[in-house]
């Protein structure tokens, strides 16, 4: 019997990594299913578990059935869609900018979408979330472009410069948004329930209105996986492999903006999900963007649904908004990343 040689050790490395990825993916799917069950079963209104089952299988129009089937089920489906959009958008932004701090909220994209949607509410009286997506798309694109230019306009711009530029742009857009709603009470009434970031009071109509946009963005992201791996090697090497880095980055940025616009129009500006999830996914899967995207698309809705359930239970008989809970989770994570990077050059 002979000892395993170097070739066998090299072969077991990728095989072990693949096994870890598959096992992790199955674990995340199981966690997502548990989060879905918890989201349907628990809420601000206590409903016995047997009544939850009856509401799903034999709807009778009772208050408990309405709470479960008409409120929690659409809320859960929307949470899955919005969470996947935010997680994948964060992953794409980090890949495109090569910036570990890139995230829709930190880069001002959420603030841009919010400012555009408030403009639609105030000036045009548009309240349908499906119409908001178009305004959110324009606002998110403009905000991302401003942050990119202020941060240096280069693919390898300093993470700190992009974070500072995003903070500045977000502050300016938030000021504009506050000024608009301050002088328009009707817009304020719609905006104040939306601005914190929440899945509450969103029916299936909202899901179907923003669903096509989120589906397009997620499809583009899935197609871009191999190209993002090539771009990560550098422009020259990626071109040698037959990739087109400029087109890949542009398409990835477009997909991220579509996802952010759709998610923000549906649930408001929910922050830090797109920052934390890709880092956790990358720690498990390694640098392969195909796996990071898949993990992000599953982990982010799990995190969002858990945050939503926690907000419902902590705030009984009311509820704590989902955006508040994710901020409480994400802010320490953001600080930890900055400390780990030890950024000294601004």
From TrEMBL:
User: Where's it mainly located?
Assistant: membrane
Q: Where in the cell is it found?
A: Cell membrane
Where would you find the membrane-spanning parts of this chain? 22-44, 77-95, 107-126, 132-150, 162-186, 206-231, 252-280, 292-311, 323-341
For this record, an example GO cellular component is: plasma membrane
- GO process terms (BP): siderophore-iron import into cell
User: Which InterPro entries would you find in this protein's record?
Assistant: ABC_BtuC-like, ABC_transptr_permease_BtuC
Q: Which organism is it from?
A: Micromonospora craniellae
Q: Which SUPFAM superfamilies does the annotation name? A: ABC transporter involved in vitamin B12 uptake, BtuC
What GO MF terms are annotated?
Answer: transmembrane transporter activity
Q: Which CDD domains match?
A: TM_ABC_iron-siderophores_like (cd06550)
PANTHER family named in the record: FE(3+) DICITRATE TRANSPORT SYSTEM PERMEASE PROTEIN FECC-RELATED, FERRIC ENTEROBACTIN TRANSPORT SYSTEM PERMEASE PROTEIN
Spell out the protein name for this chain.
Fe(3+)-siderophore ABC transporter permease
State the membrane topology. Multi-pass membrane protein
Give UniProt keywords alphabetically: Cell membrane, Membrane, Transmembrane, Transmembrane helix, Transport
User: In which family does this protein belong, per the annotation?
Assistant: Belongs to the binding-protein-dependent transport system permease family. FecCD subfamily.
> Which superkingdom?
Bacteria
């Amino acid at each position: 019997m002979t000892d395993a040689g170097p070739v066998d050790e090299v072969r077991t490395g990728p095989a072990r990594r693949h096994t870890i990825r598959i096992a992790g993916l199955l674990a995340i799917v199981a966690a997502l299913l548990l989060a879905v069950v918890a989201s349907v079963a628990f809420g601000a209104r206590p409903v016995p578990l047997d009544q939850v089952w009856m509401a799903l299988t034999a709807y009778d129009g009772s208050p408990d059935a309405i709470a479960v089937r008409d409120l929690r089920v659409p809320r859960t489906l929307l949470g899955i869609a919005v969470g996947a959009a935010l997680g994948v958008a964060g992953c794409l932004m980090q890949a495109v900018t090569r910036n570990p701090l890139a995230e829709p909220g930190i880069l001002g994209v959420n603030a841009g979408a919010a400012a555009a949607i408030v403009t639609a509410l105030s000036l045009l009286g548009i309240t349908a979330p499906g119409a908001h997506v178009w305004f959110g798309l324009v606002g998110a694109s403009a905000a991302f472009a401003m942050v990119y230019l202020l941060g240096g306009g280069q693919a390898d711009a300093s993470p700190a410069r992009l974070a500072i530029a995003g903070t500045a742009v977000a502050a300016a857009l938030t000021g504009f948004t506050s000024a608009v709603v301050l002088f328009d009470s009707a817009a304020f009434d719609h905006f104040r329930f939306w601005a914190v970031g929440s899945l509450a009071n969103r029916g299936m109509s909202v899901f179907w209105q923003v669903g096509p946009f989120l589906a397009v963005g997620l499809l583009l992201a899935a197609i871009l996986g191999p190209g993002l791996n090539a771009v990560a090697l550098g422009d020259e090497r990626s071109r040698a492999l037959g990739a087109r880095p400029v087109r890949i980055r542009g398409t990835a940025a477009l997909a991220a903006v579509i996802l952010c616009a759709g998610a923000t129009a549906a649930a408001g500006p929910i922050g830090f999900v797109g920052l934390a999830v890709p880092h956790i996914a990358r720690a498990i899967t390694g640098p392969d963007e195909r796996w990071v995207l898949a993990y992000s698309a599953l982990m982010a809705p799990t995190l969002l649904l858990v945050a939503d359930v926690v907000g419902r239970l902590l705030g009984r008989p009311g509820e704590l908004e989902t955006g508040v809970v994710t901020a409480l989770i994400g802010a320490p994570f953001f600080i930890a990343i900055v400390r780990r990077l030890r950024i000294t050059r601004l």
